[in-house]
Amino acid sequence: MEEYEGNKPGFDFLGFTVRQWKVKSTEQGFKTLIKPSSKSMKTHYRKLADICDSHKTASTKAIIAKLNPVIRGWANYFSTVVSKEVFRELDMLLWKRLGRWVSRRHPNKSATWVRKKYFPNVKETRNWILNDGEYVLNQHSDVPIIRRIKVKGNKSPYDGDWTYWSSRIGKHPGVRKEVTTLQKRQKNKCA
């Protein structure tokens, strides 16, 4: 693939960037990846930063309540593409922003005191996450990346292959929902 105008070949659309990246492991020498666009990332981070800035004196519970739906919605929107690194980067940026939010509230307290008050361990593997004991801040990286499985080339919802379609989407045209649910629960095997 040729590079033009100093950019990788591709385009931005609906907050996603579709680009071709050079790789050595494929025959073609490139791979097409869909990622969140840098403009979308900056807009999302700016929205998170504005929430932190507009709630400088709010309680921890209030700021978590404002941030969680924004984080969850954005992360769910981009959960079907290559975005794990972007999620980690946004988590880090938000953590730094919340660190500034906390240090502004308690300029004379030690880092240990601040950590115990605002970032107590949620679980053994979850450190440095803003919480107040009851509410915990969502992380972008907690949202799983879900890849869509392509439909086989010779399959159609109307070909009568109940097993394939009920296991794939949990329903089949012309069959009651109870039957497909039962089929899925039994892993397409008769009792």
Notable features of this structure?
191 residues; mainly alpha; 2 domains; three-stranded antiparallel sheet; 43% helix
Summarize the structure.
43% of the residues lie in helices and 9% in strands.
Written description of the protein model:
Strand 1 (10-13) and strand 2 (16-22) form a beta hairpin. This protein has helices at residues 38-54, 60-77, 84-105, 111-118, 162-169, 177-185; strands spanning 10-13, 16-22, 30-36. The protein is mainly α and 191 residues long. Strands 1-2-3 form a three-stranded antiparallel β-sheet. It has two domains: 38-142, no CATH class; 152-186, no CATH class. Helix content is 43%, strand content 9%.
Secondary structure topology:
Elements: E1 10-13, E2 16-22, E3 30-36, H1 38-54, H2 60-77, H3 84-105, H4 111-118, H5 162-169, H6 177-185
Antiparallel strand pairs: 1-2, 2-3
Helix pairs in contact: 1-2, 1-3, 5-6
Work out the strand percent. 5-15%
Alpha-carbon Rg, integer: 23 Å
Helix content: 40-55%
Number of strands: 3
Number of helices: 6
> What kind of sheet is the major sheet?
3 strands, antiparallel
Order of helices and strands: EEEHHHHHH
As for the number of domains, it is 2
**Strand order in the sheet with the most strands:** 1-2-3
Low-confidence regions: none
Gross morphology is: extended
Distance between the termini: 54 Å
Structure class: mainly alpha
- Give the averaged pLDDT, no decimals: 83
Oligomer: single chain
